[in-house]
Design brief:
Length: 336
């Protein structure tokens, strides 16, 4: 009898040890290694940004439906903002119709002396872009991206002007308001500045010449015909661990590209060149800024020369004076 009790007790102890060992934390649900991203992570979103995201997702659902269903009504793709439209063009011909409706060409306006650009937001590039001739392909690509770049620059210019106003008040010994301090904290997070340094923040909150952005996107996406451009809305070649990043819209891609240039330590040289040109009262030259892109590609110096050649051979600098229509803020980069 005693032997039976001893065997039973031994069995219970064995089972208990097995259960305890099985439930020991960290054995099954061990936390995975953190992924180190080469792209600057997006800052936390405000309520207005979250509302805008929901609206963008709704437009994207319409865009996907339009691609699947030829009879889908594209009128639902127009934004609530009368000055800005979200466009899901299934073909180059549809996109050309939109451009024609808005009178959008790449010709200089005889009255203003510059190219007038409507506030259009193309959600993704048309699938048949690759079938066009080189000249036609470039025309569609440039008209698709120029509005996005100008609108991104306009937002940044608004941020820059607010910071300059704050700095002028501070120079006159006026205290910074709580609202402005909160806004500065948001900008520091957005542009990845760890310590309070308004001069450095101003150096980061600045726009890029459209010719530079167009030149890089043309190089990285093959004028919009690469797989990443067509399937991932990725036209600037940004990757994480050799994986091409994808974006919900082309505007998201443009915004991420400019923010990466403005916040990433790899492009400090470019930002310093830009700040120096401003201090000297000179125009921000895309060819000069390109010298700060040595770390953008593994090609190094050859990449810089390639971008500079694209800008020059396609006369992309003519887009640096382009203006958004119905703009309350001057979006030309020289006057920032």
């Amino acid at each position: 009898m005693g032997r039976i009790c001893f065997l039973a007790l031994t069995a219970l102890m064995t089972v208990g040890m097995f259960v305890v060992g099985f439930l020991k934390p960290g054995i099954i649900d061990a936390a995975p290694e953190p992924v180190i991203s080469l792209e600057i992570a997006p800052p936390s979103k405000t309520k207005n940004q979250e509302s805008s995201d929901r609206f963008t997702k709704a437009r994207l659902e319409n865009a996907r439906e339009a691609k699947k269903n030829p009879g889908f009504n594209l009128s639902g793709l127009v934004s609530d903002n009368e000055d800005e439209e979200g466009i899901a063009a299934r073909s180059v011909n549809e996109l050309r119709s939109v451009f024609k409706k808005h009178g959008f060409t790449l010709s200089t306006c005889q009255f203003s002396g510059c190219i007038q650009v409507p506030r259009l937001e193309l959600l993704s590039l048309p699938g048949d872009l690759k079938s066009l001739s080189p000249t036609q392909k470039k025309d569609i690509f440039l008209r698709s991206h120029l509005p996005l770049i100008l609108q991104a620059n306009e937002k940044i210019l608004g941020e820059r002007k607010r910071l300059q106003l704050i700095m002028r008040h501070q120079a006159k010994n006026h205290p910074i308001s709580l609202d402005d301090k909160k806004w500065i904290a948001e900008m520091m997070e957005k542009y990845r500045l760890k310590k309070w340094d308004l001069d450095e923040l101003l150096c980061r909150i600045d726009i890029l010449p459209p010719s530079l952005a167009l030149g890089q996107s043309a190089v990285e996406s093959g004028w919009g015909t690469s797989f990443a451009a067509r399937e991932k809305n990725s036209t600037f070649g940004m990757t994480v661990r050799n994986r091409v990043l994808g974006y919900e819209t082309l505007q998201d891609c443009v915004d991420a590209y400019i923010r990466n240039i403005n916040a990433n330590p790899a492009y400090r040289d470019l930002r310093e060149i830009r700040a120096r040109l401003r201090e000297q009262g000179q125009d921000i030259c895309a060819l000069t800024l390109a010298e700060g892109l040595i770390r953008y590609s593994e090609l190094g110096r050859r990449y810089i020369v390639k971008v500079q050649n694209i800008i020059q051979s396609n006369n992309l600098k003519r887009f640096d004076t382009a203006q958004l229509m119905s703009s309350s803020v001057d979006s030309t980069f020289e006057k920032a």
